[in-house]
Each structure stands twice: as structure tokens, then as C-alpha cells.
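anyone seen this seq b4? input:
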Amino acid sequence: MQKAAPRLSIGLPVLNGENYLARAIRSHLAQSFTDFELIISDNASTDETRRIAESFARLDRRVRYCRHATNRGAVWNFNHCFELARGEYFKWSAHDDVLDPTFCQKCIEILDANPDVVLCHSLSSIVDRDMNRLGIYDPGSTGTDHPRASVRFGARLRGGPCFEVFGIIRSSALRTVKPLQPFVGCDRALLAELAAAGRFATVREHLFFNGEHPQRSTRVGLRPLERLEFYVPIRRGTRSYPIRSLFGAYADIVRRRFPARADRIRCYGHMTRALFVRFNILRIMIEPLGSLMPWLYDVMKRRPRAFGGAPRRSARSAESVAIRPTSIDAGDDRPPEHGPRLARLARMRRR
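predicted toks r here
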């Protein structure tokens, strides 16, 4: 007899995550909300990821470990986690993030009480390996809780980090949107369509801890093909135009989600304004040249502020405060020392 489906499915895609995986799994298994399954989808890791995941799967029946023979890219792995999910609610988790023990319970309480809410997240802390707070992010500051769909869509276009993709989402809503697409920034498109589908809500407590370290995916180089290779396996002759792909996805969302002419006009207005946020229009112009002259991205990396690389308003600094969620044992799974990126992040100030 097949087991009854859990209320919550958590998908944890991972590739070579031995330094952080055990801590992340412990934080999930320590949740006060217990009716969940944890799906660990291993994209052909070559380190100790398999041993760590299998040891937890033997200890707790809620853990399902799936290993793939070849690395098919992060996009496929994220989508595959949702394909395996059986729960009423779904959550993606990263192998280097940590949850407070009450995260799932408090998010699901809000979702249960508000049928028009499709995604719930909490205030977020950016932390180092020792759980020292380096920055904070408020998902509720973007305006995605507005009752009008076109306003929520525009709010996500202006939004900063995509931490909301790691919130708890209604599976029924997630099935109505396009899955993650094979381009850099596809999580922004997914969140924009989810925002068009329903409101986002925020637990006003710091329950989500985002790990900052040199090995994380967002630290990959600026060159488009370097970043694309993390998302999908690339072939010879591949070209990458991430900003064009992203705005093409936005336009597709408007066509499919907003049948009313007035709403479409508003959404296209939001897209036009977003072209001038963080120099997106300049980036679109540079992308074809970058395919022919990759060294342009090295120039951009040396002068990030000139090309929209300054810290976002929504990622705010905080004092270096040690945060120790209860019931989480960091053990010996510590990453290597951090680079200068963390020092810069710690100096960010609210604008």
C-alpha cells in the first residue's frame, strides 16, 4: 500500500555539497512541522554528498535520496525535484541554507488561512559559515502582497534577490506556471509568473538563513557561458543572452496571464521601467558583443558599479550577530574560509 502523500514536499537539489549538506538536512529534520518529505536530488556529485544523504535516508523515512548518473544542470535538477513531489505545498531548498525549526509551520499556517496566497516566506538573514549575520532581506518590501496582479508582477520585476523561490509554494499554483527555463535568471521569471498568479506573504521573523560563501552558484564569473554552464549543460557554439531571455519570458507571461488590455499596458510599462534598473538596457546591448568579445565581462567585473553591480536596496546590512537556530548541530561540516566578497557584503548600508 502506498503511503499517504505528505502535506509538504521539500526538494533539495545538490551538486558536490559535502561542506554544507549535513547542516542543511539537520535543520529540515528539526522542523516543528513534521508532515513532509525531503527529496534530495543529487546531480552526479563526485564528493561525499552521496554518503551524507544516504546516511540520513537510513535514519529518517521522510528523506528520499535520488542520484543521477550524469550532471544535467541545475535547471533540470530543480524541476525534477518538483516532478517527484507529492505534497499540497512545495519548497525548494539549497544545500547551504538553514531553516529555523518553526519556518515550515509558520509559513503553512499563513497559507492555510489565506487561500489567495500562493507563496509564503520569512524575513531572511544572509549568514556566513558560523551563522554570523552579514545582511538581511525582507521579501515583503517588494510589493508582491498587493491585491492587483499587475502590481505584483511589476513588484517582482523591481525586486532584489530571489530568496522567495525558497519559500513554501502551493503546488497547485506552481503547476500552472512555466517551469524553470534554461537561461540565467530563470528564477526571476518563475517568481514573476507566480506573483501574477497570487499574492506572496511574509512571516515577520528571521526564520531563513541564506549561506554566503565563495562556492555558491551566484559567485560564478560574469561571462554568460560560465554562468550558463551551471544552469544547463552547454554545447559548442552555444550563445547566452540572459537579459534578453529574461525579458522575453516576462513578455510571454504578460501575453498568457493578462488578457485585459489595461493590465497588459500596465505590465509593459513595468517592463519598460525595469529595462532601466541596474542598466538592463545596456546589458542587453552588450550581450551580442560579449559573445564575440568575452573580455568585456572582465571589464564589467572590475567596474561593477558602472554596470549596475552595486548592492541592491533590498539586501540590507546588519551587525555581525551570531544566530543559532535551536536544534541545529553544525557538526564538522564547515566550508573553507571566505573571500573578500563577505567583507564587502558586511559593509553594505541601507540607502
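The chain has 13 helices and ten strands. The CA atoms of residues 89 and 171 lie 5 Å apart. kinda curious what u guys think
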